[in-house]
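User: My advisor, Dr. K., asked me to get a structural model of this assembly before our group meeting. I'm new to this, so sorry if the format is off. These are the inputs:
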Amino acid sequence: MPMKIGEKPFFGRVDDALQDHFMRNAMASAQDRFRNKKLDATERDEQVGDWEEWRSAGEEIRRHTLENLDFYLDQLSENFSKRGGHVFFAKTVEEANRYIQKVAKEKDAKYVTKSKSMVTEEIGLNEALEEVGCHVYETDLAEYILQIDNKDRPSHIVVPSLHKNKEQIRDTFQAKAGYTGTEEPHELTAFARSQLREVFLKADIGITGCNFAIAESGTISLATNEGNANMVTTYPDTQITVMGMERLVPTWEELDVLINLLSRSAVGQKITTYVTNLTPGVEEDCVDAPKEFHLVILDAGRSNALGTEFQSALHCIRCAACVNVCPVYRHIGGHAYGSIYQGPIGAVLSPILGGYEEYGELPFASSLCAACTEACPVKIPIHELLIKHREKYVNHQENVKTSEKLAMKAFGVGTSTPFLFQIAVKGAPMFMKPLIKDGSISNGPGPMKPWTAIREFPAPGKDNFRSWFKEHQKGRQ
Amino acid sequence: MKVSLFVTCLNEIFYQDVAKDVVEVLERLGCEIDLPRGQTCCGQPAYNSGYRKDAITAAKQMITSFEDSEYIIAPSGSCTAMFKEYPGLFNEHKGWQERAQAVAEKTYEFTQFIVDVLGVEDVGAVYPAQATYHTSCHMLRLLKETEAPFKLLENVKGLELLPLENSYDCCGFGGTFAVKMVPISEQMVDEKVRNIEQSSADVLIAADSGCLMNIKGRMDRKGIPIDVKHIAQILNTLA
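Assistant: The format is fine. Below is the predicted structure of the whole assembly, which you can bring to the meeting.
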């Protein structure tokens, strides 16, 4: 699947990530920065009032929309079409790509510009367009950096090139694009800007993702900061927007709430520099709008979650607030997740979209600290969804080691039989005695082994608490 | 006031001193304690690993053992939070769900109970030391208890509480996470330990033995001589 990143198995990817000290420092300092910026724009912002009320409103809007998804998709499609737009419902990644390839061929398109979009990463659209002879240009600065760096993949859904520093970017620009300047950010940006300017002017098709589609008017809304999306959507005669089928709101009123939640949670901005709203069907003398507007609405596994305990995962508005507070992401970064959707929500979404065979480890790559759930602006119970994934995963016999199953069975029996539990409690000191040296266990056998690989295991206490308690109570009478 | 103590399996097996301190602190505050015999483990290891059925088995045992209690006290934010999860385990068994709900509602974490129910913030403890406090995740985010332990510690004579950098980050325990995802857990606990060292505290205090077992286990392995105490141990030190 195109959403997959890397070929190595999960622990191989984790090992690679842990060796990358630059990346890890970058993640940690980015998280610390994001945390403060977000707090300033949410809980600490007086204009906001009660942030919890905003979150509840966001949750309510997303729940209502997903519960009535067929109705609103129908409304969106009707309103978009009524104004002359073309709507295509793609059941699969392949269907989406084939449709877009067909449009590109019909238009005899040579040059395609794109604004930042995770859903087009998910379907591998760039490769699909290259197959039919198009030159595809990423115009979001971070995506541009990744694209010219041998098509590196995003490590963060909002800041795709978070794993690169300015020196690395300078080197890439010099090696791949004839750059001769320094690592100064404004110089690097000015260079990318001048490179992209030419591309904007010659593009035949502009492609965007979609932050939200507004059902009542058939409008696409994009929240961006660089202005590139406006260039992508004004110059070419043909525009194609790809949206995940869950990314819509009923009316402009709900858009207002969600744009606030998104901007503030994602990047700590009160509002993004641009909120661009595009509806097909412009007046005849309008020169800066596309003549043809296609909307590709993508399922690609999303309906697997509809009507299940995972439906709330589709409430996600891709703000990455959960990624920005996750202590696991902090250390392993984005690529180790092996999916373009990383961090806690990635560990929930990736198995829904791509299956357990590919992404079965991800739900276990969490200490269930619930920082994600606390951060989510639409109150998705992310850590609970991770537990639900674990339940489904271990229910498939072939997924789990027999020893683990037996241990859990023994756990069930031991905890439901106080008599056996007491035997275990009383037997622990004797059983572990041979292993104890200087008050703890340094090299435990069997299930203790992974623990003692990095830590000491405590020696069981010598007393029996219940006997002590009995004596203690006698003494008080 | 009659209270039932849920010792928690970690305290029962490894940290009996913590359990004894809990008993003595509560008694000093006028509580009459009983120790329901049928108690075992809250079931969280199974629940968090995806073994819902086995977690339900444990939950039923605990509900049966504690449902006659007036108050249920556990010296662990995490185990208390698991009690609060019980109703969700019985969506298809209304009878059990009601019983689970009743048990969940009267369950308190140790410091929460002292501050919110008993209305006590100064237990008369004396502990001259420079300490830092680890806010365990489940206490913080599932029970949303942000104040009780701090109120109690602020009133401990001689105790100076030092700030802990990135205190909100998990220590890397996470139950079975600590043994399933060793390389990641290692980095998380190492960062926690670095921050504890940088706080220049002599003592690390927390209200959850799971986190303490993880952090102490790592500090002992690295030979870092910082003392580790459950909050009950501090609160039961009188002079």
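One thing worth pointing out at the meeting: The longest strand of chain B covers residues 126-134.

User: Perfect, thanks a lot.
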